[in-house]
Every structure is written in structure tokens, then in C-alpha cells.
């Protein structure tokens, strides 16, 4: 704006940033060649050449963006997008860009704490705290059996940490009570998609969204919680795609959409059901694709005959005409891409919902093709890895049934320890079991149970009833007030390992800094417990854990820890990943199921 000495950087028409459509992502500061737009943090405080740089993967949401941190004296100073990242191509959202104070905070745990006889948490060396934790876990299992213990992991662990955590639970403590925070959202996503397309996650890579000609965006406030998908959707719209955003509120993406469906909260399932009905009734679907690649269309048709559009309208809060128009608009251009982001603040969708999403996309001939797909995204950074590497009461690593004798035998042969047959509990059920006195010991790894929308009194009442609570985290969270042992953990940028993002892509994490004081990675702390409980179960490090897990996780194919970086599972015998679900080579790989309102 302005001329001569009056010249300055501003928005078009000098609008305030909010009105100019700025999302405050900071991406422009990565590009500005003269630092006219730059980062304030560290400016005039740290000389650039005094900072070290390291690149890793952001685990604050399931996009898994590549991020380069600049670090000075054990603190993150700035975060920059990593341009070669196949997941994000250099983009970061405002959370990944600016939310790193959880690693810098003076509240970081630098040492371990153990409750004294007087009920105080006293500082002790980490080894001593691990001794106490292991002794007391052993005591609880000897007195009450393994089912009296539960293990619960957070969102930002590596695959190897989830693997080790479930191994500790199943082989070390003889309990199937192991879950991750993301589990209740990730499990139906896996089961719905696996049963209808044989692939329990997103069918296409995130980059495909930009090639879509028609978009339906549902679920989370995508720009806030699944930003890379939203950025790609906006790119598709700029290139001529039509976009429908279905959300109770006018969210960030709404202003780029041709159609905003202001649906009732939690009525996405009803909306998809209604769109299916209109498409089948009006024969808007791709008959050639359906005949060539799908089975059981009649099942879907029969179920839709029993559903009235008036009922759909009532559930969604939309008129029947609006539903018809939306279905016609969505079917008007292909490939069509359905984006659904799960939201931790809301009830998990069930597997029928995910099957209906697949059905919608299959009717439009938009599964397994570039620019199409079911972009179903979980709630958490490495929720996909948690499920795949066994931090789930229902599945052992590699989605093997946790209760079937044959799959338990495979795992127990590998570990040299029995795997219990009793079904385990998901974390919401763990609270009930604690209240009933069935669970007496709980090991929290990177979990703040107060941050999950549960009534505070319920959390407090459960934590207070425990005979043993071990809290392992980067900072002393509120659960630590009830803890008997507190262990100092590390943040994801201080860890080595792998993670899987929502597009099924494995990525390697590399530590950009050391954990402070005596803090250790979750891997080392869990391994420390394993060593004390049964030394033969401990592993040499993340590479050894990955290699052992690969014997259970068939989707990893023959690739090594070093070679897996960037590959999307399933990985074939030739070591090649699967970026996009393949239609060829499989006999009618897409299955329709009955729709449900
Ligand atoms: S790149 Fe991000 S911060 Fe910069 S103007 Fe655009 S939206 Fe705003
Ligand atoms: S989109 Fe997700 S993974 Fe990417 S920077 Fe933001 S929070 Fe991190």
C-alpha cells in the first residue's frame, strides 16, 4: 500500500487481516524473501546462527505435516513448513506453526516423583520411580490378576511406543485393557472402511483432494482441525470444483463453498443417507462403475426403500428440496471427494456411517480414482498408528483379533509370553470399571483425562479410587494430583520413531532436541518398566520394536525401519506402498451395505 516513503506491506484494500481472509497460519512468513513478513518469536533475542535446526513430523493432528524447528538452548524458537514433505508440501496450520509452548513451558517435568508415606509427591531419580512403579504393578496383578490393570496412551506417541505399550499390557501385565485416546473414533473408521473397501483408512492421498471436481465436507471444522485437507479443498475450488460444506455453523470453509448445509449437530449420518436415497431414486449414479467394481447394490437399494426423505429432512433440519439439490450438485461433476474429519468434541461416528460414505462415493464412481475417495480422518496425531500397532483392546498389532486363540498364539510365540484371552476395555469403559473396583491400577502415558470432555467429578472420583496411578507426561497435568508415581516424558519433537498419518503414510520422526533434565522418551520409560517386570520383553530401541512389530503387521511388507519413510500401507511384497486404493486386480472390491437413518 502507499507510495514512496508511505509504502508498506498490507492486505488488499488495507482490510484488517481477519476480514481479508487470513487464517494466521504464518505460511507467508516462510516465503517472504526480505523478511518484511517474518516471525516475532526469537527476533532480537537469538542470533540465527546460534540456533540449531531439525526436521520431524508434527503429531498435533492426523495430517502429519513435515516441520522444521529452530531450537535454542533446549527451547523451540520457530517452526517452519518442510517443503519436501509428501503429506503437507511445506504447509503448516496455525496450531502446528505456533503451538509449541508445551515443550518450552517451565512446567516441564524434569524428574520423577513418587508419593511419600505422608501423601506428598517427592522428587526421586527416574530409575527409583520405575522400580516403585514396577513393584506396585506387580503387586496389583499378583493380588487381583492382570485385568485389574489398565494402560492408556495419548495421541502423540510413536508407532514403536504404542507397540511397546500394548506389549507391556498384554505380555508384561497380562491385561487386554489397553487403549489410546483416539481409539473410540479410530476403531469404527477402521472397521467401516475395512469391511466395505478392504482398506481401513483413507482410500486416497491428501494430495488427491486438490484434483477433485466436486467436494462434500462433513464433520469437523476442517480448517481448524484437519487443515491440510481444507487447504487442498480450497485449491480444488479455485480450479473449478463445486463444494458443499455440511456443518451446523458457518465454518471457515463455508465461504469457499457453493452450498452450506446448516445441518443439525451430529446428523451427518442422516445427511449421507438422504443423499444416497436421492442418488438411487433419481439414478444419478455411475452404472458402469457400480457394475464393474461393486457388490450388493440391492442391499443398499432395499434399505433405502424403507427410508423416507421426510424423515431425513426432520433429522438433518434441511428441507427435502435442499437435500435433492445438494445430491444433484454433488453428483454434477466427477471425481467427487468426500472429506470427513472426526472431532474429539463429538460422539464417534459408527461404522455404518463410514460404510454409507463409501457407498456414496462408489455410486459416483469416485473410489480408487485420482481426485475421488473417502477422506476419513481421525481425531489425533498418530491415532492410526495406535490402532495399527495394537494400542487397542480389540486388536493386536496388525489388526489381529485380540481374543481369537490363533492370533493370540502368534503374538505369544513371538513374545515368549502368554497373551490373556479376556476381552479388554476401551478407555470410556475403564472409568466404569474403576468405579466398580474392577480396575485398581492405571498407567497413563501422555493422557490428560481432564481434557476429554468428561465431567470433572467423574474423572476425579475414578482417579481417587485407584490403588495405583502412574502418570507419565511432559508436564505435571491435573491427573498427577492423584498419582502415586509421576514419570517425566518427552514431546514428539524429542523422539525418534515412526508415525502413520491419516492417509496411511509412514513417516520417520527424528529428535530435534533432547528432553529436559532427567526426562526420557515414552519408549525408554515403558521399556524401563518392561525390563523390571520381565527383562526378556524389553527391546533395544525403536528400530528393534519396528522390526518385531513387522512380524505381526502384515501391511508393512518386507520394508525396514529405515526404508518405510514416506510409504503408504499396505506395502506390497515388492516394498512399494499404496498411495491410492487399487481397483484393478481385485474382484469387485467395493461392498455395499444397508443404509441406516
Ligand atoms: S499465508 Fe497464512 S498468515 Fe499469511 S496471509 Fe495467508 S492465511 Fe494469512
Ligand atoms: S495440520 Fe496438523 S499436522 Fe499439520 S501443522 Fe497443523 S496440527 Fe500439525
From TrEMBL:
Query: Where is each 4Fe-4S ferredoxin-type domain found?
Result: 13-42
Respond yes or no to whether keyword DNA-binding is given for this record. Answer: no
Task: Identify the keywords attached in UniProt to this record, alphabetized.
Answer: 4Fe-4S, Iron, Iron-sulfur, Metal-binding
- The organism's place on the tree of life at top rank: Bacteria
Which terms does the UniProt entry file under GO BP? respiratory electron transport chain
Determine if Magnesium is one of this entry's keywords.
Answer: no
Alphabetized GO MF terms: 4 iron, 4 sulfur cluster binding; metal ion binding; NADH dehydrogenase activity
Q: What is this protein called?
A: Molybdopterin oxidoreductase Fe4S4 domain-containing protein
User: From which organism does this entry originate?
Assistant: Desulfacinum hydrothermale DSM 13146
